[in-house]
Design goal:
Blueprint: H1 10-26, E1 35-39, H2 42-50, H3 53-56, E2 61-65, H4 76-86, E3 91-95, H5 109-114, E4 119-121, H6 125-134, E5 139-146, H7 151-164, E6 169-175, H8 179-187, E7 195-198, H9 200-206, H10 212-218, E8 222-224, H11 229-244, E9 250-252, H12 264-273, E10 274-276, E11 279-282, E12 286-289, E13 293-295, H13 304-308, H14 327-331, H15 363-377
Parallel strand pairs: 1-2, 1-7, 3-4, 3-5, 5-6, 7-8, 8-9
Antiparallel strand pairs: 10-13, 11-12
């Protein structure tokens, strides 16, 4: 298939759904004993609900929403540190729009902006670089966050700042990696997962082999998937086929975009600029070893943590989740968003209690946007 509309063809979708149903019956999947497939990426979660795939697949297939939203897994302490940076008189804070409404303990970045902080929404770290060039008397700090998808662009911006000697630009680095939290979930004895739909955009950068441990060490199938409805349905079918035939492999459904070994230019930039943190705190998952990235000492002049003596380098500050917030349980697949007692009551898109309700990749936002508001009302 060549064009996007072909991946949304109803007749083709019905054919794949019939094959999914046949395969699900073959392996004995029922609503009482479902096959539990975790989609790791928040973009997949939104696609599943946008196209109603959770309602169309065999009732013995249950989608479990994983921790694949980088804004959502950011601990509140890091949001607080970002707000504190933004409130410094000499700082212009540049951030992606997704992070603006994520609540900290005192306020969100949007509230800080309303209170007078100079916070600019940007579409790329290159926009932040341009802000630094145009404001040589100000410190421009880019709120760097995201999985391996956005990590290379931040790395390339730091390299460019170093080449230019742009001393008033720095990055508050909150970049994280996908494989370690998957391992943490698989090590959790309470998580019963039968297979994974792997992230497409992340895999475009890192390739498919970083997931080898899932099949090799845990005996679980994983299929890297695209974002159109037929991509996801085919990926579910491929997971079921592995289960039915007793296989556990890493397969690439999204081969039209994802190269087996990733993007060498991006991987080289990541390796040059970053090194693994000994550990990093994930909202809902706690501390996970070597799951976060930090800027290497050679680029310390462009590291906001070093420049402003904040973050892990200044001593970690643990902040408890708001009382009644179940973001951690939702993010780790233990409950659905509508099972959270605050969903649609104490937590709405207008007045969010947790990050999952405001991020464009958050599971709670997906439930709300595609029918969750009605469920909450009921």
């Amino acid at each position: 298939m060549k064009y996007a509309e072909e991946f949304r063809d109803p007749a083709a979708a019905r054919a794949v759904l019939e094959r999914i149903a046949t395969m699900a019956d073959r392996i004995g999947a029922t609503p009482e004993s479902p096959v539990r497939i975790m989609e790791i990426c928040g973009g997949h979660t939104h696609a599943i609900f946008r196209y109603g795939l959770d309602k169309l697949v065999h009732p013995g297939i249950e989608f479990i929403h994983g921790p694949g939203c980088p804004v959502c897994v950011l601990p509140m302490s890091r949001v607080d540190e970002c707000v504190a940076l933004a409130e410094r008189a000499e700082v212009i804070l540049a951030t992606f729009g997704d992070a603006m409404r994520v609540p900290g303990t005192r306020k969100s970045l949007l509230q800080a902006k309303a209170d007078g902080a100079d916070i600019r929404m940007v579409y790329s770290p290159l926009d932040a670089l341009e802000l630094a060039r145009r404001n040589p008397d100000r410190e421009v700090v880019f709120f760097g966050l995201g999985f391996e998808t956005t990590t290379p662009s931040t790395a390339l911006s730091i390299q460019q700042a170093a080449r230019e000697g742009l001393g008033n630009f720095s990055v508050f680095c909150n970049h994280i990696t996908v494989p370690p939290p998957i391992k943490a979930l698989l090590d959790d004895p309470h998580m019963g997962l039968d297979g994974f739909v792997g992230p497409g955009h992340v895999s475009m950068v890192i390739g498919i082999h970083p997931y080898d441990f899932i099949a090799r060490d845990y005996g679980k199938p994983i299929v890297v998937a695209g974002f159109e409805p037929l991509d996801l349905l085919q990926s579910v079918l491929m997971v079921l086929d592995q289960i039915a035939t007793g296989r556990a492999e890493v397969e690439n459904q999204y081969a039209r975009v994802v190269p087996e070994h990733g993007n060498p230019v991006s991987l080289a930039a990541i390796a040059d600029v970053y090194e693994p943190r000994p550990s990093f705190e994930w909202r809902g998952l706690g501390e996970i070893e070597e799951s976060g990235l930090r800027i290497r000492p050679v680029y310390a002049a462009w590291d906001a943590e070093a420049k402003f003596a904040i973050g892990y380098g200044a001593g970690r500050r643990v902040v408890a989740e708001p009382e009644g917030c179940a973001c951690g349980a939702v993010m780790t697949g233990r409950i659905k968003p509508t099972d959270c007692p605050q969903f649609g009551r104490g937590c709405t898109p207008e007045m969010p209690l947790g990050a999952l309700m405001v991020s464009s990749e958050g599971a709670c936002a997906a439930y709300w946007q595609y029918g969750g508001a009605r469920a909450a009302a009921e």
